[in-house]
Fold this sequence. Notes:
Structural class: mainly alpha
Number of helices: 3
Strand content: under 5%
Helix content: over 70%
Order of helices and strands: HHH
Largest sheet: none
Number of domains: 1
Amino acid sequence: MKFAAASVLFSLIAFALALVMSMPRTPWDLPILAFLAIIDAALFVLGRRDVSAMLDIAASEWEAAELRALMALTISFFALSALSLGYAILAHVAPSALG
């Protein structure tokens, strides 16, 4: 369950950094954003596998419900950070494409 918690926390941090780094554009923004996206995707895959494995061996309904909630958090925070990182990368690569 440690990878799932790490995935949720890192996705939240990546979302915040994508918002912070979208305003002043420097040459270092694109590599940092790409690196954050790669780490976020890797932690998401590990976190989903971790929760799925724990869900298979859940002892009670209460524990299974908690793990399903953690899976929902993992997926939703990853989607949020992936959208914000993708927008920030696109804004850096092709600013005229966004209007």
